[in-house]
From TrEMBL:
Cofactors demanded by this protein: FAD
Protein name stated in the entry: Dihydrolipoyl dehydrogenase
Sequence ranges assigned to domain Pyridine nucleotide-disulphide oxidoreductase dimerisation in this UniProt record: 354-463
Family matches, as PANTHER family: DIHYDROLIPOYL DEHYDROGENASE (PTHR22912:SF224), DISULFIDE OXIDOREDUCTASE (PTHR22912)
Length: 479
């Protein structure tokens, strides 16, 4: 048995590494366990997000957006750019460099903050002991006053489409395609499916997205979903709803036949690459000994309360392995909250204001309640919308698709939700998050001065439109 730690974190993803750094900053003797290693056996920090998720996908999205924008719209700006080419292998190499820089940076932060890295697979034993099995099979056991479980999640695999190297891919494999496929199939019209479909559609792939649900982006406000569906169709994303994949067949090791059924019956398509993006599940297999005192629910998630405490005193769980949206920023905030609680401070995550973003172009972003949710709950509300087509800065940027929508309580005027489709919606949504965190009313935003000309003025105008006071669009006629 080694020296006892104040805190041991299992998992070095966005939840785990942030929790470890925060705990160390608060004077707690902290260790972080991570099993991921590269081909040379060196530790890989940052989890799914930094290595095969958020960061690499955004690198590809940014590269392909710049390419498409130059090819399709340079002439609008008076720029002559004939025969624009994309070097896909160089694009992928740039993505890999960004990932390497960021994951290496976490190692530097661990050293700077005094976090001990324990390399290997972590398992919680009884009495808050953590067993670490290294890559060479050696086992060590470490004791802790507190343990934070941050094991993350893995892609869901489906029997009709078993992963096949180079042809049927999960999100990690999709990020390493180094040649533009002529025909790309995607199973699932969620965040990953839409983002990866967008990447390759911009480079010329014929993209077909098969979504089992009959509705598109059911969790988003339907104004956002309808606008997004219209725009994706213009971008040649063939999104087929109610399409349930029933089987796949690899043909001559070069292409994939995909069988699916929809309202019209049995159908099939043939693609050069197939991405399976049907969601993620918590990675809790092998994480807990039977007598650890921590319980899982029927779906494999770790049971926790609002402050991420498990049933075992001194053991917390955060991120994708617990209830709530599987989002890196949610995991990070939970990690900070738990570290603060362990250090004796008061802390709480406000789960009512977790932003959601899909990084297509235009981007989709929202926070708070949708109109559908409020209607179903019987809440009286009022809405205001402002299109980017009426924004001078958006016109100057040649990026006028989409809108901002603000929803407020009809009686109290408190902002209940902010929803948007737009070029930089991922940045603008923070204004809605901050407003809701401070319990702002629509009037508070109306009375706030926004710089001109900026795209963010659309948030101001949408808030004004809640009470029919928008300046730069015609307001609804008062009844």
């Amino acid at each position: 048995m080694s020296d006892k730690f104040d805190v041991i974190v299992i998992g070095a993803g966005p939840g785990g590494y942030v929790a470890a750094i925060r705990a160390a900053q608060l004077g707690l003797k902290t260790a972080c366990v991570e099993k991921w290693v590269d081909g040379k056996g060196a530790p890989v920090l940052g989890g799914t997000c930094l290595n095969v998720g958020c960061i690499p996908s955004k690198a590809l999205l940014e590269s392909t957006h710049k390419f498409h924008d130059m090819k399709a719209h340079a002439k609008d700006h008076g720029i002559a750019a004939a025969d624009v080419q994309m070097d896909v292998k160089k694009m992928v190499a740039r993505k890999d460099t960004i990932v390497k820089n960021l994951t290496g940076g976490i190692g530097g932060l661990f050293k700077a903050n005094g976090v001990t890295l324990l390399q290997g697979a972590g398992k919680l034993l009884s009495g808050k002991q953590v067993e670490v099995t290294a890559a060479d099979g050696s086992v060590s056991v470490h004791a802790a006053e507190n343990v934070i479980l941050a094991s993350g999640s893995v892609p869901v695999e489906i029997p009709p489409a078993p992963l096949t190297e180079g042809l049927i891919l999960d999100n990690a494999g999709a990020l390493n395609i180094d040649e533009t496929p002529k025909r790309l199939g995607v199973i699932g019209a969620g965040v990953i499916g839409l983002e990866m479909g967008s990447v390759w559609a911009r480079l010329g792939s014929e993209v077909t997205v098969l979504e089992a649900m009959d509705s598109f982006l059911a969790l988003a406000d339907q104004d956002v979903a309808k606008e997004a569906a219209k725009l994706f169709k213009k971008q040649n994303l063939d999104i087929r709803l109610g399409a349930r994949v029933t089987g796949t067949e690899v043909i001559d090791g070069k292409e994939v036949k995909v069988q699916f059924s929809d309202s019209e019956g049995e159908k099939e398509i043939v693609v050069d690459k197939l991405i399976v993006a049907v969601g993620r599940r918590p990675l809790t297999n092998g994480l807990l000994a039977g007598d650890s005192g921590v319980e899982l629910d029927e779906r494999g998630f770790i049971k926790v309360d609002e402050q991420c405490r498990t049933d075992m005193p001194g053991v917390f769980a955060i991120g994708d392995s617990v209830r709530g949206p599987m989002l890196a920023h949610k995991a990070s905030e939970e990690g900070i909250m738990v570290a603060d609680i362990i250090a004796g401070h008061k802390a709480q995550v406000n789960y009512d204001v977790v932003p959601n973003i899909i990084y297509t172009h235009p981007e989709l972003a929202w926070v708070g309640k949708t109109e559908q949710e409020l209607k179903n709950a019987g809440v009286k509300y009022k809405t205001g919308k402002f299109p980017f087509a009426a924004s001078g800065r958006a016109m100057a940027s040649n990026d006028t698709d989409g809108f901002v929508k603000v929803i407020a309580d009809e009686e109290t005027d408190r902002i209940l939700g902010v929803h948007m489709v737009g070029g930089i919606a991922s940045e603008l949504i923070a204004q809605g998050v901050i407003a809701m965190e401070f319990c702002s009313s629509a009037e508070d935003l109306q009375m706030t001065m926004f710089a001109h000309p900026t795209v963010s003025e659309a948030v101001h105008e949408a808030a004004l439109a809640v009470d029919n006071h928008a300046i730069h669009i015609a307001n609804r006629k008062k009844r």
